[in-house]
Design goal:
ArsR-like_HTH, Alpha-Beta Plaits, 4 strands, DNA-binding transcriptional activator DecR, AsnC-type_HTH_dom, 152 residues, Arc Repressor Mutant, subunit A, elongated, 4-stranded antiparallel β-sheet, single chain, alpha+beta, 18% strand, 2 domains
């Protein structure tokens, strides 16, 4: 969807805060009827602007209180290795995000684990699946801001 109008932006703002809003409530918030609101939401989904709806879970509540950023360097830069890396990181449940980077760092991985022993299990799973030349990790001491809502 190339152009988002003011109502589309309001819908996105509200749904990013609470995707469980009923169509009635959402419509009231943005000034539309239930049906008109449903059509707008459906159009945002169909066009790929809304890619999904999720429930956010408190990491401590499920014993995943330690966030780790893994910095990965590799001397393999061929397409086959990249596909294998993508498949390996997608298959490990504790890995939340993977980014291919510019500069000295090849990849940055964000993961959630219970503790250091759990991190080591995740690390061992990763290195068993494919060769990496260097992996270092930084552990989050304090989460100052960790949001999901994009400014619309």
């Amino acid at each position: 969807m190339a152009d988002l109008d003011t109502i589309d932006r309001k819908i996105l703002k509200h749904l990013q805060r609470d995707a469980s809003l009923s169509l009635e409530t959402l419509g009231e918030e943005v000034g539309l009827s239930r049906n008109a609101c449903w059509r707008r939401v459906k159009a945002l989904e169909d066009s790929g602007v809304i890619t999904g709806r999720v429930a956010l879970v408190a990491p401590l509540a499920i014993d995943l209180g330690l966030m780790v950023f893994m910095q990965v360097r590799t001397n393999q830069h061929d397409p086959d290795w990249a596909v294998r890396f993508s498949q390996a990181t997608r298959a490990i449940p504790g890995i939340l995000s993977v980014y291919r980077m510019t500069g000295d760092l090849d990849y940055l991985i964000r993961a959630r684990v219970a503790d250091m022993a759990d991190y080591d299990r995740l690390y061992q799973q990763l290195i068993k699946r494919l060769p990496l030349s260097d992996v270092s990790a930084s552990f989050v001491m304090e989460e100052i801001k960790d949001g999901t809502a994009l400014p619309v």
